[in-house]
Amino acid sequence: MPDFRKACVIGWPVKHSRSPLIHHFWLNKYHIPGAYLREEVMPDSLSSFVGKLSDCGYCGANVTLPYKEQALTLCDCTSDLARRLGAVNTLWFEDGRLHGDNTDVDGFLANLDEQARGWDLNCKRAIVLGAGGAARAVLAGLAAREIESVTLLNRSLDRARQLADEASGWGFRQVRADSLDPAGLGLSEADLLINTTSLGMEGQPRLDLDLSRFPEDAVVCDIVYTPLETELLKNARMRRLRTSSGLGMLLHQAAPGFEHWFGLKPEVTKELRTMIEADIKRDKK
Ligand SMILES: NC(=O)c1ccc[n+]([C@@H]2O[C@H](COP(=O)([O-])OP(=O)(O)OC[C@H]3O[C@@H](n4cnc5c(N)ncnc54)[C@H](OP(=O)(O)O)[C@@H]3O)[C@@H](O)[C@H]2O)c1
Predict the structure, then answer these.
(1) Could you count the other beta carbons within 10 Å of the beta carbon of residue 183?
(2) Measured in angstroms, how far is the CA atom of residue 139 from the centroid of ligand 1?
């Protein structure tokens, strides 16, 4: 019988996190004795909590808002990618040392690959809406797939410029920053559009974009997953464009952590997706 192992998600607040549902689905599916808990850690207590993670019996953890940046500084070893993003979302112990990585990039790419197969074959120009933590992960993903040119549009132009400056050293031919003006997006020349802002999320303002000039073989991706299908994706689907929704990114980003903690690479299946979709719909009622 394998050891009982446990992991957790650390955040403030964490009661809405769907990570326990995802990891318990996999623990049950693969008959692994283990648990995955929520740990609500008060501001100012992250360092002491992470310091006693192993003593509390945890073999690792996910880190969510607002601690992804601070957690990076608490690790003994971090990946190049985590340092580039300035944030970690997955912690695990190896040889007694605390390792940290950022799996949002893997999650973003695996989801696009699954939902819009071959999207990167002829993708030269991408438009990214937003310049926060998620936009940074998306840009790193686009750099990994050698996309030539990116336009970064954000409500706060300064933030867009700062991220564009940084990303210009990641291998792109061109990274342009501009303010978020839906009227002047230049959609007709883009192959891929990705929304990483919280616009279109439940309780947030709408994201109104006219997709009529977007090329018919282009792909629209929205990383927002509540609602499961955002207005942006609905509009894209009506225009018969290929789309990629946010839930898959959430599911795929969870897989590397599970493998570190429980020793098996889990599959993102239709069954898992249906279970989480049902939970999101239940929450809405
Ligand atoms: N699917 C997934 O696995 C996944 C993973 C991570 C994040 N997400 C989702 O991605 C979204 C962004 O997350 P994040 O971590 O990047 O957050 P963040 O760092 O706080 O960034 C938020 C972004 O949204 C923009 N924004 C917020 N309110 C806006 C408004 N009213 N009008 C225009 N722009 C607005 C911000 O612009 P300013 O810079 O001007 O404030 C910024 O670019 C959230 O909805 C989150 O749930 C999904």
Answers:
(1) 7
(2) 14
Collapse the DSSP code of 151 into the 3-class scheme (helix H, G, I; strand E, B; otherwise coil) and give the result.
Answer: strand
CB atoms within 10 A of CB 31: 7
Does 60 have pLDDT greater than 80? yes
Closest C-alpha to ligand 1, atom 34: 155
Amino acid (one-letter) located at 17: S
**pLDDT by residue (tens digit) across 168-221?**
999 999 999 999 986 767 788 899 999 999 999 999 999 988 899 899 999 999
| 89 three-class SS | coil
The residues carrying an active-site annotation are 68
By alpha-carbon position, which residue is closest to atom 44 of ligand 1?
Answer: 198
For residue 134, give the ligand 1 atom closest to its CA.
Answer: 16
Q: Do residues 22 and 248 lie in contact, with contact meaning Cβ atoms separated by under 8 Å?
A: no
39 HSE (CA, 13 A, CB side): 24
Closest C-alpha to 125, from 185, 171, 221, 189:
189
Cα angle vertex 133, ends 129, 139, to 5°? 60
Distance from residue 198's CA to the centre of ligand 1 (Å): 4
CA distance 169 to 237: 35
Q: Which atom of ligand 1 is nearest to the CA of 248?
A: 1
132 CB under 6 A from ligand 1?
yes
Determine whether the shortest distance from the Cβ of 155 to ligand 1 is under 6 A.
Answer: yes
- Tell me the domains of the chain and their CATH numbers: 5-102+253-284 (3.40.50.10860), 106-245 (3.40.50.720)
Q: State if residue 182 touches ligand 1 by the CB under 6 angstroms criterion.
A: no
CB 64 within 8 A of CB 17: yes
